[in-house]
C-alpha cells in the first residue's frame, strides 16, 4: 500500500491540472484553485491552452471553461493568452483540429504561457480530458508538461470506477516521469454509494498530498468551493 508523504513538499507556484477522465470537473476544480490561491495573496492566473467546443462571444471564439478560468484570474489576462487554441467542435482536440485544418504547435502555447507567467505569481494550467487524451495527432499532454516543466494536480471524479481510474492515471504519470503535486476529489455524482469510504481508500493509496474534496452543486460556484481546498503551506 502506498501512502502520501508524511511531510508534503512546498506548494508549487505553477502546475498543470489533469483528470481521471473527461467530465470530472477539471475546470471547476481549476477555477476553485485559482480562488484559493488568490486568498493566500499574490497574483494568480489560469490557462486552458487547448479547448474544443467554442461559441462566438463578442466577435471571437470562446470556450466556457476557458472563460471560467479567465474570470477567476487576478489580474484578468487576455483571452488569447488564456486559450491560444479555441476549437469549434465539441469533440476530442485531435478531431477538432483536423476539422479546421489546424496543425497544433507548442510555440504559441509557450509564448502565451510566458506572457501569463510574467504578470502573475502563480499559474494554473488546465489540460484536456484525462491524462492520456492527446493534444493533437502528434503531441501528447506530456509533451506540453515537459516543455513547461510543470508538476501535475489530479482531479478525481468521484463515481463508480474512480479508484481504478485514479490509480491508473497515477501510474501513467509516474511512468512518464511527471511529479504529482497533489490530488482533489470532486463529487460529480452526489448519490455515489459509500462516497466517504472511496475517498478514504484513495487517500491511503495515492502517493501525493490530498488537496480536499469539492461537494456536488447543480451550478458550482468556484469562489465558494475554494474554501473546501486544503492546500499545504507554501
TrEMBL record:
Q: Give residues annotated as binding Mg(2+).
A: 27, 65, 126
**Native source organism of the sequence:** Lysobacter zhanggongensis
Q: Which UniProt keywords apply?
A: ATP-binding, Biotin biosynthesis, Cytoplasm, Ligase, Magnesium, Metal-binding, Nucleotide-binding
Instruction: Name its cellular compartments.
Output: Cytoplasm
- The protein's name in its UniProt record: ATP-dependent dethiobiotin synthetase BioD
Superkingdom per UniProt: Bacteria
Methyltransferase found in the keyword field:
no
Which GO-annotated molecular functions does the record name?
Answer: dethiobiotin synthase activity
